[in-house]
Amino acid sequence: MTKISPPPSRIYLLRHAEAQRAAPGQKDFDRPLSSKGYAAAEIVADEAIEKGYKPDLIISSTALRCRQTAEAMRRIVSPSTEFRFVDAVYNGTLDTYLSLLASQKDQGAVMLVAHNPTIEQTLEALIGRKALAAALPHGFPTAGLAVVDAASPRWSLTDFVTK
Fold first, then answer.
1. Could you tell me the CATH number of the domain that includes residue 63?
2. Does 69 map to a domain?
3. Where are the transmembrane segments (predicted)?
4. Residue 129 has pLDDT above 80, yes or no
5. Are strands 10-15 and 145-149 parallel, antiparallel or unpaired?
């Protein structure tokens, strides 16, 4: 399994907000956010603004619901913040997510907008099973934003923002 060492020194893990159920014949990849999902993404963005969270780079799945969730975060970043939409995040494995994060050596803070269960597995790989169970006993909710900072010997969950 890929290990991550700073930089980045802060990782934001954002699970996409609630999506609509697939319409007949619609691909899972193409499901948009529900009205509730749009509202939740905006609430999390507002909370991130209040807390001063500013990723230098946002990496998102190319699935529609992740792209829409990432767009809600556009308000919290500077105009120079780069957005990367990466096909490999959709249906990506834990090692895919960790490798993407580990390869960002020129970024201080990186946000990954992605899918469960892999986003939860990524958080567990960073902070450990016990810390994950204590912080999220009911799992990683939609529109949940984990703020993880570099600490020795493991990463440390410093905040969790949700609607």
1. 3.40.50.1240
2. yes
3. none
4. yes
5. antiparallel
